[in-house]
Design a protein that fits this description.
- It is a single chain.
- This protein is an alpha/beta fold.
- The chain has 12 helices and 15 strands.
- It folds into 2 domains: 205 residues, Rossmann fold (3-Layer(aba) Sandwich); 189 residues, Glycogen Phosphorylase B (Rossmann fold).
- A 7-stranded parallel beta sheet has the order 3-2-1-4-5-6-7, sandwiched between helices. Strands 12-11-10-13-14-15 form a 6-stranded parallel beta sheet, with helices on both faces. The protein has a two-stranded antiparallel sheet with strand order 8-9.
- β4, α3 and β5 form a beta-alpha-beta unit.
- The protein is globular.
């Protein structure tokens, strides 16, 4: 069977599913992506092809509709690439696309007999979008509602919609939810797993921004945080304020922050060149223990896993938005977790009673509870809920695909 994956990024959420189908020996698998360097990360059994937009949105397009025009342009680019593949003899029976950006808008127009499954991540609601923008007034609310136009049309045109979590499904209008199935992306529990001996040996952490490897002895308390972007959406200001207080209160404590100084989803800081890291450090000023605060930048995956396994307390904070893979990876690694209580963070951990739950909007109590946890006896380790394992995800995808193909015959 000919199968086509479509994603602006590569391999993104489709890494493991594309690999499983490509290596089965039963299918011809094509991955369409906008990335021009995708061939540097080959997946056995998967052929990579690139699509390109022929232009950008017009400068005169109403700003409410720029995202819609861009979605149409992406849909056209994908359509041209699919048509070229068909002229080469490809006959796609299954198309799996990353939904919401326009990539799958016109798939069924060209391939009416194919099964089209769209993976959707988010539907923009006013009460959650306000965390993505520096200002959120009526104008931004209207623009947000119009941003949903290509999402709704793409969901309407595909045969099946998939969302990673129940929380993400709940963001969509009630009238569309019957078309959505919950299948998580899947965490490789063969890689992210607890290390029962890590507390009894020194660890050596490396990162692109560390001047030299950081060695931490077994008796060194460690507070950690990992993020794609240092921004308010992921509770970075609240964490850094807490970290500064903890460093002053606990003389031997080290704090490790993994990730780059950037914003991944929301907005720049209003000063300091847009850097929330620089703005917060300036706000905090000089404080005792500053030399024990380590910003690693990106870390090798093995080092990142060691950080999660070893940390005396690993913090994951988020405002209401898509839940980061890092929370699932931390739980799979048996991390001792501190998490803010929100709908986005529910259902990830098998044993929620082991989590130190905090409120991002109460900085004083948050800081006090983190310091208390670090000064007290070792906290229990967490376990990731079984349905978030990669093998469970692949099994759910296989069932979904088989059912869809059976119904189409």
């Amino acid at each position: 069977m000919d199968i086509v994956f479509i994603h602006g990024n590569y391999p993104a959420q489709f890494r493991h599913l594309a690999a499983a189908l490509g290596q089965s020996g039963q299918h011809r698998v094509i991955f369409l992506t906008a990335r021009d360097d995708a061939n540097t990360q080959p997946i056995p059994g998967v052929t990579i092809r690139q699509f390109q937009l022929h232009r950008s949105p017009n400068a005169g397009t109403h700003h409410y509709l720029v995202a819609t025009e861009e979605a149409v342009l992406k849909g056209q680019a994908v359509l041209r690439s699919l048509n070229a593949l068909m002229e080469e003899g490809l006959n796609p029976r299954l198309v799996i696309s990353h939904g919401g950006m326009g990539l799958g808008l016109f798939v069924k127009d060209l391939l009416p007999q194919a099964i089209h499954i769209g993976l959707f991540e988010w539907y923009f609601q006013p009460q959650t979008t306000r965390w993505l923008l520096a200002e959120f007034g009526l104008n931004e609310q209207l623009q947000t509602r119009m941003r949903n136009l290509p999402i709704l049309d793409e969901l309407n045109s595909c045969d099946i919609g998939v969302v990673p979590t129940q929380w993400q499904k709940q963001q969509f209008p009630a009238c569309t939810q019957q078309k959505l199935r919950v299948v998580f992306d899947g965490i490789d529990a063969g890689f992210f797993h607890p290390d029962p001996d890590i507390d009894h040996r020194s660890i050596r952490l490396e990162g692109e921004e560390l001047p030299s490897p950081l060695t931490l002895d077994p008796d060194t308390p460690l507070l950690s945080y990992a993020t794609r972007g240092m921004e308010p959406l992921r509770g970075f200001p609240e964490f850094l304020r807490t970290a500064a207080a903890a460093l002053q209160a606990i003389p031997k404590l080290h704090v490790v922050i993994a990730g780059r100084d950037r914003r991944a989803y929301s907005y720049d800081a209003p000063s300091h060149g847009g850097s929330w890291k620089d703005r917060l450090l300036d706000e905090l000023g000089e404080f005792s223990g500053r030399e024990r605060l380590h910003f690693t930048g990106l870390m090798p995956y093995v080092q990142y896993r060691s950080l999660l396994q070893r940390s005396n307390l690993h913090c994951y904070f988020t405002r209401p938005y898509v839940t980061s893979w890092s929370l699932f990876e931390a739980a799979a690694s048996g991390a001792r977790l501190c998490v803010n209580q929100t709908e986005a963070t529910q259902g990830v951990v098998q044993d929620p009673e082991h989590v130190l739950w905090v409120d991002l909007d109460d900085q004083t109590t948050l800081t006090a509870r983190v310091i208390e946890a670090l000064e007290g006896p070792p906290r229990p380790r967490c376990t990731m809920a079984a349905e978030h394992r990669l093998d469970a995800s692949l099994h759910s995808w296989q069932q979904l695909v088989n059912a869809a193909l059976t119904q189409s015959n």
